[in-house]
Amino acid sequence: MIETRQLTKRYGHLIAANEINLSLKEGDVFGFIGPNGSGKTTTMRMIATLLSPDYGEAYVCGQSIYTNPRDIRRLVGYMPDFFGVYDDMTVIEYLEFFAAAYRINGPSRRKICEEKLELVDMAFKRDAMVNQLSRGQTQRIGLARTLLHEPQVLLLDEPASGLDPRARIEIRNLLKKLGELKKTVIVSSHILPELADVCTRVGMIEKGNLIIDGYVDEVMRKARQQLMLQIRVKANQERAAALLAQHPSIDKIDIVKGTIEATLKKEALDYSDLTTVLVQAGFQVTLFREEEVNLETAFMALTKGLVQ
Is-above-0.85 flag for pTM? Predict the structure, then answer.
């Protein structure tokens, strides 16, 4: 559905996107992760044919961004991070205006607009003035507008930017719905928790370079170079830590806020006997678990904190 080959954009000496290679299939929800200024928006705008690359190629549904930009725009729904609305329109009028721009005419226009309002849970605001909506409601209307022409590919640039926690949860639920509709979605963000439960694939970009791209479980495995266990005992934590440090599978021991953090050696695959060692030594084990690796810890492990 989306393929880029060495897609590159420069602004003078600044390389905003450096030889980006992506390959996304139908139904992929791709989380594009990186700090502000890392190249996310530049890459998405090139895929949407809104910005010409200096080098490289991109295909959307088999169409080249160079030879078939008009066809690609019919296939793509692009939602920028900030967009304006018209002050003198109701919500339904706003959607009908853009539906007409997409050449959706006749009785089906109103029906399609109503359907998209239902999809984004905004039917109750159909007759409200657009300029009186909250930021979260405006984002949902923007998403409804993006879906009017039934695009096969969605490019959503920071859709939860500036939203309160409740509105972010609502946007996240909408993204899950879009994944169920088998659309190919690229959603960019620098707020990692909002992507964790939504994306099937993630890519991490830093200073214009795509440093990692893969399915979520693959990225987690790369981030977890060594397994860490979090252990708590009822008493004598220092003595328990000293005992664990002598175990042949343990590489390093730390005590952080009352929890023993035991880092295993890279070759250590089985740690099932560690609880037995502690119990036989008289310790009461109250916590024993693997450290959770999420997108935040993966991002910190795999990136260097570089910005443009």
Answer: no
